[in-house]
Write a structure and sequence with these properties.
It is a single chain. With 225 residues, the protein is α/β, with parallel strands linked by helices. The chain is globular and about 50 Å long.
């Protein structure tokens, strides 16, 4: 009887750990290497209250700038399509993110692409340079729910996971930094993870619609920063 009680307790603890393992921010082991430095990032909240990893240079004031030069917003590293995330979905996501981020900055600054001719025409002392990349698109089997902590439910949940029938969470990872064009030094760095729409199973495809809300939330934060 005692051995059975210990076993049930172990199952309950495992379920609680599984249910709480989802981090709201990008973990250091998930950093892509895109940013020039990650050492000063701290967990904080965005303008709309979303958890982010961010660093802002002391004294940085966006109002001191009038122009933003945008490097191409790309994937880093180069992604490989999967059974759930197609090449078309990745292209649609990249295009939408680029369009929306440029639009958000354009509501406050004069925005140009970063080319030699365009950079030469912009006063460096009033200019920011934006580097940004999509560093990950992932799907993951959803954590166990509280009502699934009983041993028999755990067995059923494991069977559903093996068959690919459990709900899938979707995640989008983005890293970005702003540089002062006159000094070449970073003034802001941010690493952000957002959760998209849930998928019903491993067979359902990730599309732009799945992650569109994550991008829109990031744009709202740019507007309010």
């Amino acid at each position: 009887m005692e051995r059975s009680r210990i076993a049930v307790t172990g199952v309950l603890l495992s379920a609680l750990l599984l249910g709480s393992c989802t981090s709201q921010v990008t973990k250091p082991e998930q950093y892509s290497g895109f940013l020039t430095d990650y050492s000063q990032l701290q967990e904080t909240t965005s303008a709309t209250g979303q958890p982010v990893m961010r660093w802002v240079a002391p004294g940085f004031k966006p109002d001191n700038y009038r122009n933003v030069l945008v490097q191409s917003i790309r994937f880093y590293p180069t992604p490989s399509p999967s059974d759930q995330v197609s090449t078309q979905a990745l292209e649609d996501l990249q295009s939408y993110l680029s369009e929306q981020v440029r639009g958000a900055f354009a509501r406050r600054f004069k925005v140009s692409d970063l080319s030699a001719a365009q950079r030469a025409a912009v006063p460096a002392e009033q200019t920011l340079i934006l580097r940004a990349a999509i560093t990950g698109v992932s799907t993951r089997t959803k954590s166990l729910k509280p009502y699934e902590v009983l041993p028999i439910a755990l067995v059923a949940a494991a069977a559903m996971t093996a068959a690919g029938k459990r709900d899938q969470t979707t995640e989008l990872f983005v890293e970005a930094e702003l540089f002062d064009a006159s000094t070449g030094l970073p003034v802001l760095q941010v690493v952000r993870k957002g959760f998209g729409q849930e998928l019903e199973n491993r067979q359902e495809q990730v599309t732009l619609k799945t992650l569109k809300g994550v991008v829109d939330g990031m744009v709202r934060d740019i507007d309010r920063f």
